[in-house]
Write a sequence for this structure.
């Protein structure tokens, strides 16, 4: 009967299966670390591939472009999403369903399809950018990236806002004479800080890893450059890939540890983890944290 | 507003562009989807997505079952979930290079096996073709399954097991008559999601495949980048429409299944 009181498999079976999964998942990652420090021509070890991340001009500038894109995407995403979500929650709760639908829509439409249809739209986006003096800048991608990160960021912000009593807080601030800007910046934002952080981290990870749209629209971002040099200089590509994966992993891990402590709802939901690729309305389980109103 | 401009309009223009371009209606481009070559590509895509969805779903469910017994706050579980998240969603190009570094021509494991067993298993270049795609896709499908299936596993309540036990069920009976039937819709739904994910994936294949366009996403790229030369203007639209159609079909089925699941989870 003791077997019945246990959740999950027998420990021996559990650990041997876990070991197999560990081997399958860690071998490629460790191989990347090994491969990226090899000297393929003369044998032995070299750190050249990692140095190239900063010394190779084309790669370094692609890294800067991607970081810049990540920054602009985060700023624009927060500027668009935070006030809108607060407004919808306080003034137009009936629009919440529609907003959620719109924000989660990007998950169901493949990036490739967006690219195919986007050509026409971008003609006048670049026209507008050249009008303000940015010309053919890769920053034009910011707009489509904001749409791309919406589902992830929306969920992060939404669960943070569900955890506080937004209505009471803002009414208190307003009745004490604060303007809307002050209310948002000095009362609401500090209270949903963890949600803002998760939304931003996830957006950064998405932007740094995005390849499809950038490559097909002809912009040289980090991922595009990694593929471009891959044929000639495999070790540098592998080093850059590993760097991106590690950065993403560290961001999500920090978030997971941080979010776990700051959470008041007591739900098991992780800010990053639970089915970020599934629209909340579609996910196999109503989301804990109070945002599952019908 | 942003969503409208950068998501809805592109999608609509794909639908319109597939039948109406440069002032003329034509179903020729849709017809071209049923060429022998296009159909072969579609079949390869479906096989790739189907195989990796099934393998990924089964192995992913097993992995999720292994970690569900750790409490959600444990560092081990956070590690697994964070790593899964990275591999499943932000990998793309990086995963292609991970496997090139491991079992490519110069890969770490390739060289090790060659030195110790005198065998070069990478020489045929299979990694850069369909078998390689299946392997690499499985590598990101399993973590995705963990992420989408874990909530369903967690939804299995302790009380149900206790109820089964107190009624005299054995462990196997509980699994077969309570747990499996409850989890089946979630499992099938997740499998469909994995299928859609693989079908629409582009970055990994673009970085890995060296020649030819064996799957639909690569064919779209080909149509986009060389349509002027080949004079097949707008074929990209038709292919994109095909992709939307397949993904939409799968997502509708997914939705129906999820509705069944949420009935008992609420």
């Amino acid at each position: 009967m003791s077997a019945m009181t246990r959740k999950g498999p027998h420990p021996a079976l559990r650990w041997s299966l876990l070991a197999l999964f560990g081997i399958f998942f860690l071998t490629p990652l460790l191989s990347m670390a090994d491969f990226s420090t090899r000297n393929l021509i003369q044998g032995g070890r070299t750190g050249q591939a990692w140095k190239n991340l900063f010394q190779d001009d084309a790669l370094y500038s692609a890294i800067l472009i991607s970081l810049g894109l990540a920054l602009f995407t985060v700023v624009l995403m927060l500027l668009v999403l935070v006030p809108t979500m607060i407004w919808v929650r306080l003034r137009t709760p009936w629009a919440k369903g529609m907003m959620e639908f719109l924000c989660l829509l990007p998950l169901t439409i493949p990036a490739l399809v967006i690219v195919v249809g986007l050509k026409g739209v971008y003609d006048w986006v670049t026209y507008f950018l050249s009008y303000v003096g940015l010309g053919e800048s890769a920053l034009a991608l910011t707009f489509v990236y904001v749409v791309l990160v919406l589902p992830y960021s929306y969920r992060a912000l939404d669960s943070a806002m569900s955890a506080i009593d937004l209505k009471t807080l803002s009414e208190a601030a307003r009745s004490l004479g604060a303007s809307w800007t002050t209310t948002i910046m000095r009362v609401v934002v500090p209270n949903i800080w963890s949600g803002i952080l998760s939304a931003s981290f996830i957006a950064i990870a998405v932007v740094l890893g995005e390849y499809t749209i950038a490559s097909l629209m002809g912009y040289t971002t980090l991922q595009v450059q990694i593929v471009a040099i891959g044929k000639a200089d495999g070790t540098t590509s592998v080093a850059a890939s590993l760097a991106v994966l590690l950065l993403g992993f560290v961001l999500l891990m920090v978030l997971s540890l941080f979010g776990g402590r700051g959470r008041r709802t007591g739900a098991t939901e992780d800010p990053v983890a639970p089915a970020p690729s599934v629209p909340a309305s579609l996910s196999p389980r109503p989301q804990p944290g109070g945002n599952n109103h019908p | 507003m942003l969503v409208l401009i950068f998501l809805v309009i592109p999608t609509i223009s794909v639908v319109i562009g597939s039948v109406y371009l440069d002032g003329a209606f034509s179903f020729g481009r849709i017809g071209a989807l049923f060429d022998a070559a296009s159909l072969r590509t579609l079949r390869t895509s479906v096989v790739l997505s189907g195989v990796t969805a099934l393998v990924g779903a089964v192995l992913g469910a097993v992995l999720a079952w292994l970690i569900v017994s750790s409490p959600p706050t444990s560092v081990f579980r956070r590690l697994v979930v964070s790593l899964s998240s990275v591999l499943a969603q932000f990998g793309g190009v990086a995963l292609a290079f991970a496997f090139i570094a491991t079992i490519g021509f110069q890969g770490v494991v390739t060289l090790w096996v060659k030195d110790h067993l005198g065998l070069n298993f990478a020489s045929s270049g299979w990694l850069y073709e369909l078998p390689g795609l299946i392997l690499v896709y499985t590598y990101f499908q399993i973590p995705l399954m963990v992420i989408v299936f874990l909530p369903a596993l967690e939804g299995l309540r302790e009380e149900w097991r206790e109820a089964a036990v107190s009624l005299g069920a054995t462990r196997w009976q509980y699994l077969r008559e309570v747990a499996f039937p409850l989890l089946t819709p979630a499992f099938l739904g997740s499998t469909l999601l994995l299928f859609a994910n693989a079908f629409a994936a582009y970055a990994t294949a673009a970085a890995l495949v060296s020649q030819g366009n064996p799957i639909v996403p690569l064919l779209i790229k080909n149509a986009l980048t060389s349509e002027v030369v080949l004079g097949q203007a707008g074929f990209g639209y038709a292919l994109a429409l095909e992709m939307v159609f397949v993904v939409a079909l799968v997502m509708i089925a997914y939705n129906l299944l999820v509705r069944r699941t949420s009935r008992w989870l609420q």
Chain A has twelve helices and no strands.
